[in-house]
Specification:
The chain has 160 residues and is mainly beta. It contains no helices and ten strands. It folds into two domains: 51 residues; 75 residues, SH3 type barrels.
Length: 160
């Protein structure tokens, strides 16, 4: 995980900027929003989203800013939520954490209709956790990994 506020470089393009926020998605692929510094013309360039494996921390550069804090999770990825402002339910498929300490979640609508075409980002504190499809949310602990024994050398399955 790349600490927010650090200077990073895109290994493919050479683009350099500050890791401003990190977006984690239900099916993997953490992405970082990278903000380049103000150009000589005084204009703020647009930020870009880059996949984590494509980034490297620029050594020798000081951290621009330490994150204000990591916000508490109100909902989990994959959980059913209701957005009371939109009066719409959906499943949380992404979560973004920002340098300023806030978090937003990406909600995929449960149903689509004329005015409900796509998923939306919303402040995490705005959504209300709902029951899951199987009932109330339950905390499931990861089981201890099983002991695996190699069993020693195995006979060859080839006749040669």
């Amino acid at each position: 995980m790349i600490p927010l506020g650090t200077i990073v470089k895109d290994k493919v393009t050479g683009f350099i900027g500050v890791a401003e926020n990190r977006a984690t998605y239900l099916f993997g692929c953490d992405r970082y929003c990278i903000q380049a510094r103000v150009g000589e013309d005084g204009k703020i360039p647009e930020s870009v989203m880059i996949d984590e494996p494509q980034l490297e921390i620029v050594e020798g550069e000081k951290r621009v800013m330490a994150p204000i804090g990591t916000p508490d999770k109100r909902v989990e990825l994959g959980q059913l939520v209701k957005d009371p402002v939109r009066d719409q339910c959906g499943t949380v498929i992404g979560r973004a954490v920002y340098l300023n300490g806030c978090s937003r979640v990406l909600v995929e609508p449960k149903q689509t209709g004329i005015n409900e075409k796509e998923s939306w980002w919303v402040d995490e504190k705005q959504v209300e956790p709902q029951n899951t499809f199987l009932g109330k949310k339950q905390i499931v602990k990861d089981p201890d990994p099983p002991n695996r024994y190699s069993g020693g050398p195995a006979p060859s399955s080839s006749k040669y």
